[in-house]
């Protein structure tokens, strides 16, 4: 099973990557920009695997760039302290 198949596993995966980035010294702006790039890639290249991802994909598809940045920033906040390496 892919990490993309399960919403909770996806959030834990993102939380772990966020923790790693912060431990390596990434600042919040860099993290948020990277989250935007990942969101854009996923929206264009990956078929949503669950209902939550479908909602995010649908929102992303109708959002302008500023709104997409806001979605990415909210996702970062959602997964903060959500990783398995706490």
Automatic annotation (TrEMBL):
InterPro entries (alphabetical): DUF3243, Uncharacterised_YmfJ, YmfJ/YflH_sf
Pfam families associated with the record: DUF3243
Protein's name in the database: DUF3243 domain-containing protein
């Amino acid at each position: 099973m892919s990490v993309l198949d399960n919403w909770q596993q996806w959030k834990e995966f993102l939380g772990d990557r966020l923790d790693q980035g912060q431990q390596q010294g990434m600042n919040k702006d860099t993290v948020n920009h990277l989250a935007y790039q990942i969101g854009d890639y996923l929206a264009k290249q990956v078929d949503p695997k669950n209902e939550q991802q479908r909602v995010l994909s649908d929102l992303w598809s109708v959002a302008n760039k500023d709104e997409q940045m806001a979605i990415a920033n909210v996702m970062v906040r959602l997964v903060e302290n959500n990783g398995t390496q706490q």
